[in-house]
Specification:
By secondary structure, the protein is an alpha/beta fold. The chain has one domain (about 1-215): 3-Layer(aba) Sandwich (Rossmann fold), CATH 3.40.50.300. It has helices at about 40-45, 70-80, 95-105, 115-120, 135-150, 165-185, 195, and strands at about 1-10, 15-25, 30-35, 55-60, 65, 80-85, 155-160, 185-190, 200-205, 215. Strands 6-7-8-3-9-10 form a 6-stranded mixed β-sheet. A 4-stranded antiparallel β-sheet has the order 2-1-4-5, covered by helices on one side. α3 crosses α4. The radius of gyration is 17 Å and the shape is globular.
């Protein structure tokens, strides 16, 4: 589903990623850990096409990101990817239903699935509410529903439980994993939390020693 081939990235003369290669399969929930500054968020930005590697290839659904125009890359992000952030990025002036329906609206799809996804994340009947009426855990559930509503092939999550208490984090991650498995998406979660990583199918560590992904034992 996603293949990284010999990725290299430099910032200000410093090598952040060096010769990084890995394949992520559909239906696989993978956690990526590593010390601050080793390039975890950079890697997510490269996969999303928000930044370009200095060399190497990123293949999404058989398409090389380097071969896509800006418009085509934007279209791929909009239709085939879902994003979950630590800060939620739920739009405060929109209802929950409108927040979740946003990817459907942008893709010209039927918005009825927004209600179904709210029900799937335990917020059935709350579609008319606004984010200010929610707890942090509930807002992250809205963010998960929004990320998955258009059935993306790839879900990218950057510290999605960083603002949540442990119990809420556990329930949010269980929900994310269940929804990813149900949709057959590949999910990549960057996290500093060993507890969060333990919820994934496998954990990979991005190290400062050669900046390579290696297997991590829980």
């Amino acid at each position: 589903m996603l293949e990284l081939r010999d990725l290299k990235k430099n910032y200000g003369g410093r090598t952040v990623l060096h010769g990084l290669s890995h394949t992520f399969e559909a239906g696989e929930f993978v956690a990526i850990m590593g010390e601050s500054g080793v390039g975890k968020s950079t890697l997510l930005n490269l996969i999303a096409g928000l930044d370009a590697p200095d060399s190497g290839q990123i293949i999404v659904d058989g398409q090389s990101m380097a071969d896509l125009s800006d418009d085509a890359a934007t279209g791929l992000r909009r239709t085939r990817m879902g994003f979950i952030f630590q800060a939620f990025h739920v739009l405060p002036h929109l209802t929950l239903a409108q927040n979740v329906a946003l990817p459907l609206l942008l893709n010209g799809q039927n918005q009825a699935r927004a209600g179904q996804m709210l029900a799937a994340v335990g917020l059935d009947g709350r579609g008319g509410h606004f984010p200010r009426q929610l707890s942090g855990g509930e807002m992250q559930r809205v963010a998960i529903a929004r990320a998955l509503v258009h059935k993306p092939a790839l879900v990218l999550a950057d510290e999605p439980t960083g603002n949540l208490d442990p119990d809420t984090a556990d329930s949010v991650l269980d929900l994310l994993k269940a929804e990813v498995k149900a949709s057959g998406a590949a999910a990549i979660m960057v996290t500093h939390s060993h507890a969060a990583a333990a919820r994934a199918d496998k954990t990979l560590v991005l190290t400062s020693s050669g900046l390579k992904l290696v297997s991590f034992t829980h």
